[in-house]
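Entry for the shared binder. Reason: the reviewer on the internal report wants the predicted structure included alongside the sequence.
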Amino acid sequence: MTPAKETWASFHAFVASISVIIVSELGDKTFFIAAIMAMRYNRLTVLAGAMLALGLMTCLSGFTRITCPPALFAIFGVRMLREGLRMSPDEGQEELEEVQAEIKKKDEELQRSKLANGTPDVEAGTTVPQGKWHSFISPIFIQALTLTFLAEWGDRSQLTTIILAAREDPFGVAVGGTLGHCLCTGLAVIGGRMIAQKISVRTVTIIGGIVFLAFAFSALFIKPEAGF
């Protein structure tokens, strides 16, 4: 493949990856986790933990090589469309409440640990007052990392990344996916619950199904290495 075609293949993979991640992650469980935790704790600590988890997951998925026929894009798209059309307009509220309960449970565990060990200022995202770097290895950082990683494992966006990496440039998929996650998580951390409550999970899911059907069409008739 010529340098020009390699560049086009990477760019094609980047655009495809960032597009599907955005429509997959907005209003997803990992989005709600970041939004709710950012209201309770240090935003930078929450963002760092969530992004480390999402970056690791995206890279693992982006470089997972499987045989993926174009039909899988269509199947995934049809499935998302069916889910979206069957959803009620306030579908996202149930997942939001589930995340709130899960984080509340983790909060109680942290408070019990704080009382048992006498560690200061858990809610501020720090456990040891010396050194700025301690805030990035605090219980809040670990909580954001583990909750996000577990929520992302086997999630829609992980599957989409693996599917895309099956036919696109894996480097472009990994970079686009990581940037897409960064945009969504940053929006969740900055906007918090207000944005989470205004996002229509139903609309985003339907758009995601349309995007996947478009990629199914592209996979049948356009090869990414073909260039312009």
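Summary line for the report: DSSP finds nine helices and no strands in the chain.
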